[in-house]
Amino acid sequence: MDKKMLDRINELAKKKKTAGLTDEEQAEQKKLYKLYLGEIRAQFDATLDNVSVEEKDGTVVPFKKAYRK
Question: Of the N and C termini of the chain, which has fewer Cβ atoms inside 10 Å?
Answer without folding.
Answer: C
